[in-house]
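Incident review: delayed structure delivery

Summary: a single-chain prediction request sat in the queue longer than the usual turnaround. Root cause was a stuck worker, restarted by the on-call engineer. No data loss occurred. The affected request and its eventual output are reproduced below so the record is complete for anyone auditing the incident later.

Affected input:
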Amino acid sequence: MDAGNHSVVSEFVFLGLTHSWETQFVLLVISSVLYVASVTGNILIVFSVTIDPHLHSPMYFFLANLSFIDLGVCSVTSPKMIYDLYRKHKVISFGGCIAQIFFIHMIGGVEMVLLIAMAFDRYVAICKPLHYLTIMSPKVCILFTAAAWALGITHSLFQLAFIFNLPFCGPNILDSFYCDLPRLLRLACTDTYRLQFMVTANSGFLCVGSFLTLLIFYVFIVFTVWKHSSGGSSKALSTLSAHITVVLLFFGPTIFVYTWPHPSSQMDKFLALSDAVFTPFLNPVIYTFRNKEMKVAMKRICKNVVAYRKLS
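Output delivered after worker restart:
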């Protein structure tokens, strides 16, 4: 089609999570509470790591970056979803839809690299402890972070390139509560079978490749801990279990969506809801309650805040 027929659709209509008003009200309450808790918890982690000198180490540097990204995860789709639960007619502009897709893929790419960086940090700390300070230098931490953002932005722009010149001239209904690339491609007024395959292959390869990389690191770590089992290993396993839990929470739904050929609409919505609402809430909970240093730092900050308010 020629350029004059491009993008005559100005907005898309969401069917939402459910048509039951009672269920929507329950989802509204739960999602609102989890969103506020997610934002509060992740901001607290970023704030604690930034101002507490006891947490100025590579592990907490990556944790603060992960919490910052989780603020984006819960803010890209959740506010719009919560707002739409009030409304009968759920719409999003064409530009808003493209923006959602861009930030979803960018944040996903950044988070994958950060999780790999955190796994590498634990691998060096447990398997090569004598060289930890040399290998995990501030320069290496910054390079990991820069690589995460570079990959995230590149991956997102690459995904958007698939739809840049597609014509949208008719159907505009998305059976979802947010804009996702595979569903949007099916609304184009042209054959997009090859594009859908390339999008799925691109995201699937990135997800599976990152997950296998993490798996290799964790196998080496578990083997090393098991080989040198001692009293100090329990702390290492506790930290490691928190990392593995977060990895499974993130990669489980993502890999299923991009490797399963035709997921059901309801299953797709449930997995997307889990990624958008539950994972950003559970990450700070897992890292806070499973980490003694983080709990001590937060208590120290709270005491300082109370003491400051009394003095003022």
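Verification: The beta strands are 11-14, 90-93, 173-174.
Action items: add queue-age alerting; document worker restart procedure.
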